[in-house]
Every structure is written in structure tokens, then in C-alpha cells.
Amino acid sequence: ALSLGDVTALAMYCVMAGSSLQGCVTAYGDVHRTLGTAGNVLSALAQSASEEKRPGGVATKAAFKRRLSPLFASSTSSSPASSPSSSSGSVSPSSGWGLGRTPGCGRARGMDVTFKNVHFAYPDRLAQPVLRGVDLHVPSGAFLGILGPSGSGKSTLAALLLRLYEPEEGEIRFNNTPIGSLDSQFVRSLISPVTQENLLLAKSVRENVEYSVHADDLLNATQTSPAELARRVDAACRLAAVSEFVSQLPEQLETLLDEDALSLSGGQRQRICLARALCRLAPSSPASASSRELPSASLCGEETRGPSLLLLDEATSALDVPTERQVLGHVTQ
After folding, report:
1. What's the pTM value of the predicted model, to 2 decimals?
2. Rounded mean pLDDT, 208-237
3. 8 A C-beta contact, residue 68 and residue 53
4. Compositionally biased, Low complexity: which spans (predicted)?
């Protein structure tokens, strides 16, 4: 016969064994769910860049620029930007942003962007087209704002530019070069986007802003000097009005952010994301790269490298009106 102690020990062993078995079953289910979710991501990471889509099989952005210099040649004249049409709402240039070349610049940095008869519907809603026959031309050096109600296709235009989706009909061109003929990673390297999702790292404010420059260095096989990086971070923070609230943080730019930066307001998170994008666009000093030099375009007499297009998708929606005007005023400069 079992004693009371034996029964108690047996019951405890059963509980422990059951808990272990339940943990194994839960882990098994988690692994399968993770594999299913990560399948597309892993397959994308496993794919090598399609060299046939790079002129002459060139594998780096710097060499690409040398071989395809017409893509980066600045236009000598600008034409008014055309307004696109959308199936679910009208979109038009925003007079609040202004349109035209940067004052005082004889040769604008950037490239022409053209949408030609673009049709698109999301794969899970093929019967509900978002864009129908969109024709849009943004000259090099111009600023264009697109207005429209929710669901009218504004974010879809941004997704197509970033090649997150491909048009069903029509094509998108950068300086008369169809972006479908270019490697998608290279196309994205030409664009500095600020999306509606404010994705921040659990790092310091400075590391979040300079992250974009480190990514460009990795792509271009360059290394920006610490002094140059600090200069660009400071300039971007001033332009995006980050310096105004960072000065009140305990360690200023070195303040560590928590997960998802929940300690900051929505407007503060947006400004950091905007500073990160502007940091890539900041003019570089002549000795900014400590490895090989990159071909660059001219911006009011200063040598620049990096993206050629700044893409803002409701990037200032959480800012108050005075701050929004200040930030957009800096951006258009």
C-alpha cells in the first residue's frame, strides 16, 4: 500500500510530467506557426540579387551609377507635375508643399519619376482596382503632394514606387528607365521613405537616426567617418525638429528608447523617423567616406550621395500644425 507521502510525490510527479508535455506541445505548435509565417521572409532572404537586372552584371550601387549615368543625370528643364487619377478618389498636387526646383540650384539633385497608364489591384481584392490608368510625372527637383480620402491609393503609389507590388498594367520609370528592369533592392536604395508605421529600434535616438547611413554604407561598401556621421545626424535632427524635444531627454541623443519607443509621443516618433530619412539625404563633405568614393550629384554646389527621392506617406500626421509647417518648410529647402 502506498503511504500518504508516496501518493503526494506521485501526484507532484504527474503534474510535473503533464506540464512538461504541455510545454512540448505548445513549442511544437509555435515552431510550425513560425515556419509558416517566416516562409516568405526566409525565401526572400535566400534569393540572391538578380544580376541580369543590373547593367553589365554590376553588383554594387556605386558601379551601377557609373554604368548608368543617364539615370542620375539632372534634367535641365522642368515641366509641371501631372496629377494622377484614382478609381476611388481624386488626388491632386498639394499647393501647401509647393512645386518646383530648389531655389538657387542650377542643377537639381534627383531624377524624374513617371507613372504611365498604371493599373493596380491588390492580389486578395482583384475585383476592386485601386488605381486605374494613373499618369503622373514628377520632374527632377520638384516637390509634389498628393491628396485624397482614405483608400484612394496614396499609399499604394508609394508601395509601387518601392516595388513592394508590381503594376498589373503600365509601367513606372526613373529618368525614362523602367524600374521593372532594375533590381528591386537597388530601386529601394534610391528612395528614402517615411511611412505611416513609425518603426524604431530599441536603441538610442542617435542610433535610430544614423541607422540609415550605416545601411547605405553597407550597400555602397563605404564607411562614413564618425565626424561626418555626427554632422549629418545633427543636421537631420534640426531639420526634423528632433532637437527641440531631445534636449529635454535625460541623455539627449544618447537616450535609450524602450520597445516600440512607447515612452515617446506619436509626433516625436514621426520626427525621429523623418530625421532618419533626411540623414541619408544630407549633403556629404568631400572627405565623408573613408573607403572608396561614390559618384554623386550636385545639390547647390555640394556633393551628395545616397537616395535620390524622398517619399513621405503621411509622415507628419501626428504633428501639431506649427511643427508640421516648420518640418515641411525645412524639407522643401
Report:
1. 0.61
2. 80
3. no
4. 73-95
